[in-house]
Amino acid sequence: MITALANFIFVEPWPFWTGGLVIGLLVPLLYYYHNTALGVSTGYGNLVKIILPSRQLQWIKSEFSETWSWRIYFIAGIILGGFISARLAGRPLIIPEMGQFTIIVGWPALLNALYFFAGGTLLGLGARIAGGCTSGHSIHGIANLHLSSIIVTVLFLAGGAAAANIVRALFMGGGI
User: N or C: the chain end with fewer CB closer than 10 Å?
Assistant: First the structure.
């Protein structure tokens, strides 16, 4: 029974509508209980405050008065859920490649790690400049008809498509 339930929740792909339903219910619950929007990038701000508590960066001091907020547990849940899902699906503990990109490019692991670290850093910087991450703008902002979120989401999608095509053309031998 428990194995079948764990398999259903963590291993088998959910129908497309269940993820939307869960997120759609989570957004109003967050507003009701915490009066806040769903978003991931602000959780990383909390993480920076935990790792560097004496930092005098104004945005950390002003936005993250509560260091151990629900967002830290939300990020931990995302990571732990992915780990549990992979382990229950029989995936190895460590996977050295990151999909087709690392297989085709064939870079050493350290160069791959630096490449993806730089990408994550730029993603965090972009989220900071945009005033939130894709999930915050696209799920919460559009639902509340915020014009800035609609514009930023269109730009996220266009930028992601352009970046994917550029990476494919430069590193994977495909055309733009």
Answer: N
105 and 167 together in one domain: yes
Residues spanned by the domain of 20:
1-95
Q: Are residues 83 and 5 in the same domain?
A: yes
Angle in degrees, CA 103, 107, 111, rounded to 5: 125
My answer on whether 80 and 60 are in the same domain is yes
* Number of helices followed by number of strands (H, E) in the chain: 10, 0
**Has this prediction a pTM greater than 0.90?**
no
Instruction: Give one DSSP letter per residue of 117-173, joined into a string.
Output: HHHHHHHHHHHHHHTS-HHIIIIIIHHTT-HHHHHHHHHHHHHHHHHHHHHHHHHSS
Q: Residues 120, 41: one domain? A: no
pLDDT single digits (tens) 66-123: 777 788 888 889 889 888 888 888 888 777 777 777 888 888 888 988 988 898 888 8
Token duo for residue 31: 């507003």
Asked if residue 172 lies in contact with residue 105, where contact means CB atoms within 8 angstroms, the answer is yes
pLDDT in tens, 39-74: 777 777 777 777 777 766 666 666 666 777 788 888
Report residue 43 as tokens: 């959780």
